[in-house]
Amino acid sequence: MRPRALRGIAVSNGDVGYRGRDRKRFFIIHNPNAGRSARLLFHETVLRLKNSGATVDILDTTRHGQGTEASAQAARSGNFDVIAAAGGDGTVHDVAEGLIGHPVPLGIIPMGTGNVFAREVGLTQPAHRIARTLLEGKIRTIPVGQVNGRPFLFVVGIGFDAEAVRLFESEGTRSYGQVGFVWPVLRALRSYEDKPLKVTTVDCVQEAQWVLVTRIKRYAGNLILARDADLHDTHLHLLCLRGNGMLNRAHQLAALALGVIDRDPAVHAETVEWVRIEGDPRVPVQVDGEILGQLPLSIGLHSDRLKIIFPWPQ
Fold it and tell me: Which residue(s) pair with 62 in the sheet?
């Protein structure tokens, strides 16, 4: 069935009911490429919403960017109280991009491999908790990052980790869940050739071989990348990882796994409002866990903000 939001219904400029008891109209943008357990979670969550008296329209996404177009159109229609992303971080990124600056909040049904952003928000399974959050959770407005004029939610990686993401996407290991990321990381350790990156902030210019810019604490599942980061903060956390070679990178990965990456002497960490990264345009770039963009990059804060539903208590 074609969703009502895509039928050309007139736009409403009014608010659409954001108290939990008023949330009855849901538009869910769903990535159908999920495993059996994720599909069961999705169907149970939708059933619980419907059992609460909600109406639910669902759109399956088949390509990158489709969720952005659909969420923006659904938000403009005025027909929905919540636009939800049912998928992984890539799906959440796409849906959020279409909602930035709109009064309609983003909801999340976490169905991906890492669900990094959902973890940061505090949203975890099972289905009854997700449904209750969508219906009754607290709406908060958060700042959003911007890379070369395009919004991002939580992280930009340039170099090694982007190469691992590229291999993860191209080698078909996604179906194995988080375990499926191990082989791409090992492949990247063996084969990726570090290239110098020029990193410019307001305070200094430096060189690194791997750069991460994040707005959240967690990284690649539940690893701690920037312990002082906060979604509500208006700063970016920059990590410049220096050095070449497999042993150096393995040492940094071990420090990341132990939650002490910021204490590694080969890692420079600082809080910034803006950063520019230059280098060989062939260096891979990942944005919110998807291969997107190309050097040079200008990273800062977006001028608009995003409304998002957080679980209780927050």
Answer: none
**Average model confidence (pLDDT) across the chain:** 88
Q: Which amino acid is at 55?
A: T
Record: fold of 150-303: Tumour Suppressor Smad4 (2.60.200)
> Out of 94-108, 145-159, 252-266, which region has the weakest mean confidence (pLDDT)?
252-266
What pLDDT is attached to residue 4?
Answer: 39
CATH architecture of the domain with residue range 4-136: 3-Layer(aba) Sandwich (3.40)
pLDDT of residue 172: 60
**Looking at the DSSP assignment, which residues form a beta bridge with residue 290?**
287
* DSSP string covering the chain: ---GGGS-PPP--S----SGGG--EEEEEE-----HHHHHHHHHHHHHHHHTT-EEEEEE--STTHHHHHHHHHHHHT--SEEEEEESHHHHHHHHHHHTT-SSPEEEEE-SSS-HHHHHHT----HHHHHHHHHHPEEEEEEEEEETTEEESSEEEESHHHHHHHHHHHTT-GGGGGGGGHHHHHHHHHH-----EEEE-SS-EEEESEEEEESSSEETTTEES-TT--TT-S-EEEEEE---SHHHHHHHHHHHHTT-GGG-TTEEEEEES-EEEEE-TTS-EEETTEE---SSEEEEEEEEEEEEEEPSP-
Residue 206 has pLDDT above 90, yes or no: yes
For residue 9, what pLDDT is reported? 29
Domain boundaries, the chain: 4-136, 150-303
CA gyration radius, the chain: 20
Give the pLDDT of residue 177: 55
